[in-house]
Amino acid sequence: MNSPSYTLTHERLLEFLRTSISAGKRVHAPHRVGAKTFFRPTEDVGAIVFDYIQTAESPKSLLFPKAELLISYKQTANDVTMTDHLQKEIPEMILFGSRPCDAAALSRFVEFFADGHTDAMILKRRKALTIISMSCAKSDADCFCTSCGSSPGDTTGSDLLLTPIKDGRYLVEVVTEKGESLVSDNKALFEKAPSAVKDSYLARVEAVFTPEDITKKLTTAFNDPIWNDASLRCIGCGACAYVCPTCSCFTIEDEGTAHAGDRLRCWDSCAFALFTVHTSGHNPRPTQTERWRQRVMHKFAYLPETNHFLGCVGCGRCSRACPADMNLKEQMISIVERVPVIA
Amino acid sequence: MENTYKPYLMRIEKAMDEAPGVKTFRLVFANEDDRARFSFKTGQFGEYSVFGEGESTFCIASSPTRDGYIECTFREAGRVTTALSRKEEGDTIGFRGPYGNIFPIDTWAGKNLLFVAGGIALPPLRSVIWNALDLRDKFKNLTVLYGARSVADLVYKNELDEWGRRSDMKLVTTVDPGGESPDWKGSIGFVPGVLEKMAPSPDNTIAIVCGPPVMIKYTFPVLEKFGFTPDQIFTTLENRMKCGVGKCGRCTVGPVYVCKDGPVFTYRELQSLPPEY
Fold first, then answer.
1. DSSP code of B21?
2. Distance from the first to the final alpha carbon of chain B
3. What are phi and psi of B40, to 5 degrees?
4. Residue A17 pLDDT greater than 60, yes or no
């Protein structure tokens, strides 16, 4: 598969989404909230936003909620009973309007949780999710997908990829069997199309480094003074991790009383001092310098070593969200320029 | 589908006071099926939980040769360990595990074992020590050097008495200067200094070291001075953990997860890692 094979008009796309919603599927699509765009469950397809570069938050919460129940418990003097939330039904959902970098990120995210000790919760949610992405016709200065193994028309991780072409139509690429069955279930809406070249409709995002280059440079950069300079502005707020489509660190916390309550998994961030501090007070990453280095090294050096992919797709959200105006793309460029490679 | 985060229910069969603020619990499975399918090896750890307070990470301090129960030893320090220390015999707590790699004790057959432990870091080595004592014929000389801040802070006092009396092992105990009591018969001094006086031979010997970071820092050079190679020295790391299975991200040291790639490392392995532990 993986070749452009259908076209779809804008009206029919909306009709398809409307039909899915009335069939009981939850459709998460970009909506305008204030000045920004967020994925929200769709009630009215007319509210879906098409004119956006990137949503403020990534769609990863559909696989990995900000806080999710692991178990609930009830405790009496001589008995404990537990509810296992993994056994809950996951409703079928559609993610519509994710960018190709998001879909690529979710595929790396799922791969990480499938590797080694499998996370059944996250795989179950991916199974219930259909991803219909939208290629990028526009980009901004913070985008650097082409430096991180993705691109404005990347099909990786999507079930269907739509590329806006002329006359209010979309080119539809079927990427997976799930995407294929979606098309065959709605045959009347899709028109067969001769394979077309989509490149001319895509944003141009200039590559500023290669994944191999940055990983190689970082292997000798652990003690480089760059981490001190780069982290001086970091206030340790964790916004970068919360908007990131690949950040997967979490904490496990109890909420409740001795009699009844829940054990939850919640997002966490390596930017926080409390993330690594030992009970004794000793902290293996005592200052923001080590924490920022960990964030960059984990994404650009450690994950390529352990999982063979970058933990970054260049979506640029962290740079847009940072209240201290730190810019990941600029920092990566300065690492490539400054750090020598010792062969 | 198995929920990784659903703990086993464990009943506290025995609660023992070890030192001020330090307790040992002997835990048995509340559910017979859980007991039947559970097994672990020396060096592994688990997540112990008090419902409503959360989970806390400690090693399994008992030996896998002792069937039917596990033991953990912990100091009352944070929210979970404080709640845990208020639990009594007969109470139920949660346990997930076993997690992590192991001390490769099978490959140490025919060798001398030298254990060096400080303070509350004896529990992980206690599992290996009892494992070796229960299979005593497999190993040559067994030596244990254990130090604590004061006599009161020594854990497993009854077992130290027993080890001291045994003729098939050698026990050296030490307390920091000022930590001795009038009737103290052991050494006085810090662990690395006492080890230096013992002048351990590296011949056919494995050294297993666990203690606070400062003790480890000064103990490795002593062992190297006597000719131990970094492959002959084993330790077990303790970083803050949550999931125990290599996902939550906080115990990482470079590309390595202490929870799944460790907690047992050789000194050689540590030398290739950044000092983030």
1. T
2. 34
3. -150, 170
4. yes
pLDDT tens digits along A89-103: 999 999 999 999 999
Provide the β-strand partners of residue A94. A27, A130
H or E, element range at A126: helix A120-127
Question: Does the beta-carbon distance from B248 to A250 stay under 8 Å?
Answer: yes
Q: What is the mean pLDDT of residues A229-252?
A: 95
CB-based contacts of A44, cutoff 8 Å, min separation 6? none
| Beta bridge partner(s), residue A171 | A7, A163
Residues of B with CB under 8 A from a CB of A: 1-7, 9, 30, 49, 51-55, 77-78, 81, 92, 94, 212-213, 238-240, 242-243, 245-250, 252-255, 260, 274-277
Question: What is the tens place of the pLDDT at every residue in B102-156?
Answer: 999 999 999 999 999 999 999 999 999 999 999 999 999 999 999 999 999 999 9
Three-state DSSP at B26 gives strand
Type of residue numbered B156: Y
Tell how many helices (H) and how many strands (E) occur in chain B: 7, 15
Measured over the CA atoms of residue A171, residue A175, residue A181 and residue A182, the dihedral's sign is negative
Mean pLDDT value across chain B: 96
- Which pair of tokens denotes residue B175? 């307390």
Instruction: Yes or no: say if B125 and B210 are a contact pair by the CB < 8 Å rule.
Output: yes
Paired tokens of B83: 């709640």
Q: Name residues whose C-beta falls within 8 Å of residue A9's C-beta, 6 or more positions apart in sequence.
A: A168, A169, A170
The answer to whether the Cβ–Cβ distance between A250 and B242 falls below 8 Å is yes
| CB atoms inside a 10 Å sphere around CB B157 | 14
- Inter-chain residue contact B51 with A294, CB threshold 8 Å: no
- Residue B59 main-chain phi, psi, to 5 deg: -70, 165
Q: How many CB atoms lie within 10 A of CB A239?
A: 18
Predicted local confidence at residue A1, as pLDDT: 44
CA distances from A172 to A122, A192, B119 (A): 27, 9, 65
How much is the ipTM here?
A: 0.92
User: Are the C-beta atoms of B208 and B216 separated by less than 8 Å?
Assistant: no
A305 vs B53: CB contact, 8 Å cut-off? no
Map tokens 């098409």 to a residue.
A50
pLDDT at site A3: 58
**Closest chain A residue to B249 measured between Cα atoms?**
A249
**Rounded distance between C-alpha atoms, residue A14 and residue B149, angstroms:** 72
Q: What whole-number distance in Å separates Cα of residue B105 and Cα of residue B110?
A: 11
Instruction: Tell me the chain B residues in contact with residue A124 when contact means C-beta distances shorter than 8 Å.
Output: 1
Of A86, A251, A261, the CB nearest to B52: A261
